[in-house]
């Protein structure tokens, strides 16, 4: 993996938020079958960040909002990506921080074996810091789950 | 930030591990003044992962190993990146997981204001999973600190 | 322990929330000397869950609310049970989850040795999930403390 | 839920470890279609606990060990159950504790809607404490995941 | 260190909150070159605690509020001290607790080697407990960072 | 509290490790009825730190090692103090750190009301850092529990 040709659903999710979908697909043309949804959210409340990703994924038909199984898979992928963003303390405003994030959600079949089925990748990239412009630095997080 | 021209020391660190240094510098030519060190490590022990990054950064003269201040700044950036990799439980082998990671360390001045001085970014990308080939998925983590 | 005849104050607490007090006492007739208080609470705020258990325990005279020692013992038993419910992130609404829980508090002497004195068990059982009916799964948590 | 007739895959998993499979199925006869695997493990190493559950689930054909998707689902359910056992610190021997646990793994379809598919519940019940007989108290943990 | 003559910026920070600045400087006269700012804060919200320390440090000219580097160094020192205060769960009101704290911030050069530059120590001492007078016990936390 | 005359069992525990027992008792003469045990431990393994405090407390007859209730109360006070030392990640060697610590354990009746009974305070003070002399900074932690 890493630079390999397979299984890099997470790499595509990360490249999309670090550059843009066109550049990302140019770097990784073999990933053309993955579906991608993107969005942006800024907040001091983690629940708003979570809700933004869930809403984007449902509106973009990336997950079926009627099926709890899909919501459950996405929720845990979002939380795992948020752990990377918050680095050890799953809190934002409660500890006087704010985030401004781009996000991507990617759905597809990263494994050759058919039985592995579909997986989701969620990636955040943006800033975290004091609630004052410029008093912030970059942050990144990736979550992966089977669906 | 995000896709901005400034302050994206973390973006360079991430692009380096997700593609390679040449591709990363091609996407972000304005970042040519940043110094970059890269490496790879696979282990069930987090301390070996930490030690590999520290050794690479010292050998590559990215930090001055004689000054605790620089070691301290790098250590906390590594730990923050490792939080993204391990997503909420800063453990690998203790909970029956193994990691195979590429890493980058980037040093430079991401802020226009001279007083902000130098900062470090550490990024990991690779796989985490059961200690069996193929029973794994991707993982990513970024840490940023002032030096 | 486990299926033993002694020291299973936690087992009684769990059986009470998983079935009901009568069934639980039928399964474990040797535990008849333990005092039991039960209740229900649904919330997106962990502090309301904590307060519900504290209020029920005081109203049911299971603990003496005037003595900090007893409040302190109960508080830590509740928090430990809540760790099981929230599994690694002691948050509910902040990360866009809601809980609907039955709880029990049991007080008694689980050890043969008189010097071991009284202990408390707190158990929660119910659902955790998205704040939408049906988008949830079961959750369980047990906390034990000396009083 | 709670005492409801549906969706109580976790309740069955808990009743099995708190009593035994026969008693548990007697309390919850409507759950007869769920598959159940049980076992016991005592250790100061969490990885041995995880490995014991994985081995029992594979040997009992509860999951297909060749498919990473199933291993991944089980792994996260085990970790969530272990969070309940360790209550806030996912460590055993590292912080001078030992565990003696019975466990159950249950697989089935807890939702009426066919699209929700199969889910897993993992439950631990036993003791945690100092590595000296009798210097311990009860502990319980439940994890649930879609498969 | 420990009782040594050097590097005890944290010891001074702790003695100031446990006694008062005059007593602390009497115990540690060799630390006369360190700058000290003190304050008090009581709250159920951690963000108010963080903001109080930041405001006191800026008003007392201990850090330069215009430079993010200094804000970033102070923020992480505060968070580390708050980990000691909250002991494993970086939350106060969310889990039904309140704090009443004295704090100190100390800035100086704790290492002989000039290259080590300036460091910060933040110390909290006071009470944590139920939001009822007397239903509380002491708490203490120290954070250290390079600036 | 804070600088008050009562309830400062934790303050005494902290002053003992930050200065020495004689100095501490001189600052707080009203605390003469508390029993104090002290010791030192250096390790990369948290379990050795825990064991050192437990052994010192038993040898010094501060707790009765035959009674689990007392071991349980001390264990949780040690873990809470260790949370302050490790600040958010209850690990030492696993994340490439080492500690060199002085510790104190204090037992007594910090509340006027007789019913509050006896409490324990555990305090650590020393260094944490890379396993290289001088590449370290100070650390402090306090835990309090009823016994």
Automatic annotation (TrEMBL), chains A, B, C, D, E, F:
Q: Which InterPro entries match?
A: Regulatory_HutP, Regulatory_HutP_sf
Which Gene3D superfamilies does the record cross-reference, listed alphabetically?
A: Hut operon regulatory protein HutP (3.40.1510.10)
> What SUPFAM superfamilies does the annotation carry?
Hut operon positive regulatory protein HutP
Note the superkingdom of the native organism: Bacteria
This entry's Gene Ontology molecular function terms read: RNA binding
**Example GO biological process term?**
L-histidine metabolic process
Q: Which UniProt keywords apply?
A: Activator, Histidine metabolism, RNA-binding, Transcription, Transcription regulation
Q: What Pfam family does this protein match (any one)?
A: HutP
Q: How does it assemble?
A: Homohexamer.
Query: What family does this belong to?
Result: Belongs to the HutP family.
Its biological function? Antiterminator that binds to cis-acting regulatory sequences on the mRNA in the presence of histidine, thereby suppressing transcription termination and activating the hut operon for histidine utilization.
Kindly provide the name given to this protein in its UniProt entry: Hut operon positive regulatory protein
């Amino acid at each position: 993996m890493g630079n390999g040709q397979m299984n890099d659903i997470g790499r595509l999710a990360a490249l999309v938020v670090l550059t843009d979908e066109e550049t990302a697909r140019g770097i990784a043309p073999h990933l053309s079958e993955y579906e991608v949804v993107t969005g942006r959210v800024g907040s001091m409340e983690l629940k708003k960040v979570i809700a933004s990703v869930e809403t984007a994924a449902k509106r973009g038909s990336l997950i079926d909002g009627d099926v709890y199984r899909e919501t459950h898979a996405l929720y845990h992928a979002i939380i795992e990506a948020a752990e990377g963003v918050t680095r050890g303390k799953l809190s934002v405003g409660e500890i006087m921080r704010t985030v401004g994030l781009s996000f991507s959600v990617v759905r597809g079949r990263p494994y050759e074996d058919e039985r592995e089925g579909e997986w989701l990748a969620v990636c955040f990239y943006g800033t975290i810091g004091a609630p004052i412009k410029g008093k912030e630095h970059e942050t990144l997080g990736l979550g992966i789950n089977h669906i």
